[in-house]
Design goal:
The chain is an alpha+beta fold. It folds into three domains: 148 residues, Cupredoxins -  blue copper proteins (Immunoglobulin-like, Sandwich), CATH 2.60.40; 141 residues, Immunoglobulin-like, CATH 2.60.40; 113 residues, Cytochrome c-like domain (Cytochrome Bc1 Complex, Chain D, domain 2), CATH 1.10.760.10. The protein is built from 13 helices and 26 strands. Strands 1, 3, 4, 6, 8 and 12 form a six-stranded mixed beta sheet that branches. Helix 11 packs across helix 13. The structure holds copper (II) ion (CU). InterPro entries: Cu-oxidase-like_N, Cupredoxin, Cyt_c-like_dom, Cyt_c-like_dom_sf, Cytochrome_c-type_DH, NO2-reductase_Cu. It is an enzyme of class 1 (oxidoreductase). It catalyses: nitric oxide + Fe(III)-[cytochrome c] + H2O = Fe(II)-[cytochrome c] + nitrite + 2 H(+). Homotrimer.
């Protein structure tokens, strides 16, 4: 729209028409009318904006009047987990990737407070695609660590917009997670639905390959070459799978606010087993219906809506499918409720198909295998092998693959006097977690370890591995010992 106006301005000037003619709308243009209307919307009261972390979104604006909306957003540079055992230093708007969701309505006057946490190392700023102004706010918001910048803007155009950091090197700031969404609802709000969620895709570039353990640095060359190691929803592999899946009940209308932070890749957003009843194409006014896959450009967004008809787990993917199954671009929507065999039958029959005249034989029903029994370690060696896998999958993210921990955050398990002093206490920590001050090898730690949901067998394996590695006291922990502590 900005472009349209500029073009028109030039045309008007060429024709020698004045600004009066321009504003009175000598050309019959809908969007022009809308623009003039929204800029005139009065604001009276002040209100602190509700900001939410993904996958949640703030309360809909509903029928509220336009207001002066105070947005308080803090930039935090912080270490997070890209996937099991892989750490990454994310730069964030509000502590999460994507950043806090901002919800406004047309006519709001946003007073934006951008704070750069004093512990951060770099200056940042923000470019909001919902802003009509130079740099989308970037020029007014450049802020050093330990400082706060304030600027304000009138929200003119309804739609779903990306915001991102635009500090040089811009690509690097975006690649480290500095993006999020700001929604501008029309007057009266979007039509109500049952569930709303916030999802944003991003591509990441690490020195190591996908899954290489430890703290991974950003790789500028791979980013320039657009060779992503990770393509994920909401900042990490599995951020929205398993227990973190989003949910709905059969019959509910679901609305997804989907963004793409890039920095490089375009998303072919698709939900396996669902059809989008409605898509607000590119986050704008145009609504397409009955869509299978919608394209979301880097630095763009879409609002997709669908009613969930049957129960099950629906997989959200970037349909550039290697990204989904090999780079992390996979999320889950779990739907509970009554089946409807008219819509989906489930498996009816498993027939053996023999072409060329062979008879079609029926396989007996109910041949599905039971879930596998837990494999039990039969020797110390096996316990060590299973234990190492368990350790890398569940403990190494914090205590590190070499057991040395991270100073001031995660105590070492290697040559740990605390660990070696008391086996039952170590078992108890793994079963129930630990918080409060402890001293390990002369250094104080005061943090939180969450309880690990492991079976007796798994706890025995992992602790046996820990006790028999890195100069520790070589004890074997058995499932019986774990059970005894569990029953205490
Ligand atoms: Cu930045």
């Amino acid at each position: 729209m900005k472009l349209v106006i500029k073009q028109k301005l030039i045309t008007n000037m060429l024709l020698g028409l004045g600004a009066v003619a321009f504003l009175s709308g000598c050309v019959n243009d809908q969007s022009e009318k809308k623009y003039n209307d929204t800029v005139e919307i009065p604001v009276n009261q002040e209100m602190i904006a509700e900001l939410t972390s993904p996958p949640n979104v703030p309360t809909p604006v509903g029928k509220r009047m336009a207001k002066k909306l105070i947005v308080d957003l803090e930039i935090q540079e912080r270490e997070g987990e890209m996937t099991n055992g892989v750490k990454y230093v994310y730069w964030t708007f509000g502590g999460t990737v994507p950043g806090s969701f901002i919800r406004t309505r047309v006519g709001d006057e946003v007073e934006f407070h951008l704070k750069n946490h004093p512990d951060n190392k770099l200056p940042h700023n923000i470019d909001l695609h919902a802003v009509n102004g130079p740099g989308g706010g970037a020029e007014s918001s450049f802020v050093a660590p330990g400082h706060e910048k304030v600027f304000s803007f009138k929200v003119l155009n309804p739609g779903l917009y990306v915001y991102h950091c635009a500090t040089a090197p811009v690509g690097m700031h975006i690649a480290n997670g500095m993006y999020g969404l700001i929604l501008v609802e029309p007057e009266g709000g979007l039509p109500p639905v049952d569930k709303e969620y916030y999802i944003m895709q991003g591509d990441f570039y690490t020195e190591g390959k996908y899954g290489d353990r430890g703290l991974q640095a950003f790789d500028m060359q791979k980013a320039i070459d657009e060779k992503a190691d990770y393509v994920v929803f909401n900042g990490s592999v599995g951020a929205m799978t398993g227990d973190n899946a989003i949910t709905a009940k059969v019959g509910e209308k679901v609305r997804l606010f989907v963004g793409n932070g890039g920095p490089n890749l375009v998303s072919s957003f698709h939900v396996i087993g669902e059809i989008f009843d409605k898509v607000h194409v590119e986050g704008g006014d145009m609504i397409n219906e009955n869509v299978q896959t919608t394209l979301i450009p880097a630095g763009g967004a879409a609002i997709v809506e669908f009613r969930v008809d049957v129960p099950g787990t629906f997989i959200l993917v970037d349909h550039s499918i290697f990204r989904a199954f090999n780079k992390g671009a996979l999320a889950m929507l779990k739907v509970e409720g009554e089946e409807d065999k008219r819509i989906y039958s489930g498996e009816i029959r498993d027939d053996i198909y023999l072409p060329e005249g062979g008879a079609i034989q029926s396989m007996p029903n109910g041949t599905r295998k039971e879930p596998k029994e837990e494999v039990k370690a039969l020797s110390l060696e096996e316990r060590m092998t299973f234990g190492k896998d368990q350790y890398l999958a569940t403990c190494a993210a914090c205590h590190q693959a070499d057991g040395k921990g991270i100073e001031n955050a995660f105590p070492p398990l290697a040559k740990s006097d605390y660990l070696n002093a008391d086996v039952d206490r170590a078992i108890d920590i793994v079963l129930h977690g630990k918080t409060g001050e402890i001293t390990v090898n002369g250094k104080k730690y005061n943090s939180v370890m969450t309880a690990q949901a492991l079976s007796d067998e798994e706890v025995a394996n992992v602790l046996t591995y820990v006790y028999n590695s890195w100069g520790n006291s070589k004890k074997e922990v058995t499932p019986a010992m774990v059970q005894a502590v569990r029953n205490k």
